[in-house]
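Hi R.,

Here's the input for the CO-5-methoxybenzimidazolylcobamide complex you asked about:
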Amino acid sequence: MIDGEKFYLSVSQGKMDEVRNLVQGALDAGDRAERVLKEGLIQAMDRLGVRFKNGEIYIPEVLLAARAMHAGMAILKPILSKSTETIAGKVLIGTVKGDLHDIGKNLVVMMIEGGGFDVIDLGIDVPASRFVEAVKEHRPQVVGMSALLTTTMVEMKKAIQALEAAGQKDQVKIIIGGAPVTERFAMEIGADGYAPDAAVAVDVVRSWISK
Ligand code: B1M
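And here is the predicted structure with CO-5-methoxybenzimidazolylcobamide in place:
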């Protein structure tokens, strides 16, 4: 029996040991790893995501919670990786060329992972060509790009154009975000979606990839 409230309290307070114990306890009691992930960890992160979106909690709390969630995920990952039905889909993400900001991008990565998706994180300063190579290599359903500088926003356009030139754009949905980015800009450069924050990013990805 998974006690969602206990998971939520431990995750939201960033208590890594407690989260590990809850996960291990549920597994020892016979709960399937998929259920522990969905009804324990993901549900906790979902509740947290809503509070973050509503401005009730802030970035440090989300980062701490995400770390606690990762501690629980580490126990589940070896079990889950044997099953194909658990991972909802694959998301490739990176901060575009010339841009070294990754705090927001990392938050997006953590939240998307918390949503049950497999994330390939290309890191920072990712050139258009690397996005193209990685799409060919990993075959994600979604590509995410982050930019924090007005001067690097143009790199998002370049990466989308490069994906198009390589015949890869129609194979993926593209989401962009970062402080200077807007929905309008996203549409102008041919992205499929935009998210103002990590919680909305998960919602957008979920709307594209049905479990
Ligand atoms: Co820089 N920096 N910085 N900086 N920095 C800004 C962005 C700036 C606004 C500060 C300012 O002048 N007021 C300014 C940009 C101005 C502009 O272009 N309009 C700026 C500048 C100018 C610079 C340098 C050029 C400074 C210099 O060297 N002269 C330089 C550039 C380096 C480079 O990238 N080439 C630089 C360097 C740095 C540090 C290295 C010191 C550090 C980055 C450390 C790191 O990331 N590891 C840094 C920081 C920390 C900031 C500020 C203070 C904070 C950014 C941040 O992490 N915010 C920032 C000022 C500010 O924003 N108040 C600033 C918290 C983070 C959680 O929010 O990243 O917006 P954010 O992410 C959000 C959403 O945007 C969204 O979700 C996240 C979570 O909700 N989101 C996505 C982000 N990516 C997404 C992707 C999605 C969806 C949503 O889908 C894929």
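One thing worth noting: The two ends are 23 Å apart (CA to CA).

Cheers,
M.
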